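Wed. Picked up where I left off yesterday with ADP-dependent (S)-NAD(P)H-hydrate dehydratase. The coffee machine is broken again, so keeping this brief.
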Amino acid sequence: MAEHWSAQQLAGALPPLNPLANKYIRGHLHVVAGCSRYPGAAALCAAAGQRAGAGYTSVACSPEAVALVRAFRPSLVASSWDDWNWNAVAAAPRHPAAAVVGPGFDGEDDTCCRLALESLTEAATPLLLDGGALRALATPYGLARAQARGRAQRGPLVLTPHGGEAGALARATGIDDASPAETAPALARAFGAIVAVKGPTTFISDGQRLVEVNEGTAALAKAGTGDVLAGIIGALLAQGAEPFAAAVLGCTLHAWAGNSAAASHGLRSVVPEDVIEALPDAFKQLEG
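Structure written out below (C-alpha cells, as returned):
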C-alpha cells in the first residue's frame, strides 16, 4: 500500500542551504535536452532547475535550440550538444552535480538515442531520464545498459515516465502493464532505478517503498509541465538530496506550484512558465 509523506518528512528531505556556499557548492545541474522539434523543453527544464535551487545550470541542446534557451533566461549557460561531451559533467568531481537527460528528445532521432544511452554509462552523477530518453530505454539493450549502470555503481538513476511511457517500459521488459501503483515498483526493480509514474496521482517507488502524491491539479495537464518536473527533481539531486526523497519532494513541489499557478491564472489558463514562477510559493509552503 502506498504511503503519503507528512509535511515533516517533506521538509526534512530538503537539503539545507550553506550560508557560505558558492554557486558550485549549491549544485551544478546539467540538462541535456531540446531537439530541433522541441527546443522549449530544454528552456523549461533548466529554468525550473534554477527556481528549485540549483546553483549553476548548464544546458546542452540541439544547435537550433541554443539561441532560444539563452533568450528565455540569460543566466542559463547553453551550448550545442555537437560541441559537448560527458567530460563536462566530470570536470568538477568535488562539487555536487546531477544530470537530466531527455526532455524534448525525439525518440526516433539517432543523436537523441545516443545521448540517452551514453548517459547511462558516462554520467557518474545522479541521473534523471525523462521524455524521449525513456523511449531509448524501452528496449532490451536499454534495459541492459541501465542494469549495467547499477552494477558499476555509477550513480542513482531516476525515471519519470507518464502512463504511456511507463507502459512502453513495462512491455519492453516483460512486466505486466497494470495500475501505476503496481507498475512503478516493478519498473524500479527491473531497471535498478527510482521510478515516478506521473498522473493525477503520481506513484514513486524504489522497488521497495511506494509513495503517492495526490495533491496535483488538472492545470498541470499541459505539454511542458513534465519538463518542469524533471528540472525540479534534477535540481534537488544536484543539491545533494537523497534520491528517493528528491523524487517524492520534487513531485510534491510540482503539485503545489501547479495549485498556486491555478489560483492566480485559473485551471484552464496555466502554462508551464506559470508553474516555474510559482515554485517560490511552493518552497515557502514547504519551509513554512
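Quick read: The two ends are 29 Å apart (CA to CA).
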